[in-house]
Specification:
single chain, 20 strands, two-stranded antiparallel sheet, about 280 residues
Length: about 280
Amino acid sequence: MLSSLSSGVSGLENFQEQMDVIGNNIANINTTAFKAGIVNFADAFSNTLQGAGATTPAIQVGTGVEITSISNNWAAGGLTNTGVPSNLAISGSGNGFFEVQDPVTKAIYLTQDGTFSVNATNNLVTANGDYVLGTNGTTAGVPLTINIASSKSTAAISSYTIDSQGNINVTQSDGTTSVCGQVMLTNVTDPQMLVNEGNNLYSNQQAANGGTAPTLTAPGSNGLGTIQAGALESSNVDLSNEMANLITAQRAFEANSKIITTTNEVLQTLVQMKQS
């Protein structure tokens, strides 16, 4: 009798967690490069009333449900054109992450949110002010700067573009062009191990890559996607699917609450029988 209570309680707790995940998915339907969460269930430990024999099956009663993991759907979202040259999206296969660095703590994070801009010191930065890392032609893993260090001209910068390989092409007022750096991408072997730090940033990349720090690589190589400038990746949340999941979770929550109510009524009947 008490087993049905514990099963019902486990259902309430875990379906509430599922509704929390679904609610977060729906709330982030317009969040750039957001990856939907998926709740994975498994049955809980079973009480064995009779062990399995040579010719007889075991008799077991389950004790409810539990959440084994909350994973992310890493499928790429659709691309939305913005027309802003510093906005970058990972196209093609969609595989890969930008690597960014906190200018204060120097901590490095991964992100697929390419809402970048150029700050007052000409660094390519995220919306939070983190440096976007790449190569300046000689050193990899350095903050990218829009400059004319590799140009033979000293004329002012008039414009810049970023091509599909991540090359930052600078055009000066006298028509001189040069490449001042390259936006690079990285990847991990098990993205489910990444830890969401908020602000579309992920940490724990070394553990997610089998214990070694991931390396920056040119876009389009080693299975990585290419760069599309002037675009952003949309959230991959499927609203119709999330609404269907929400209805299912709600009905399951209600059914489990009914189990608890019914069990409570039966227990009350037993107590009254004993008192009479």
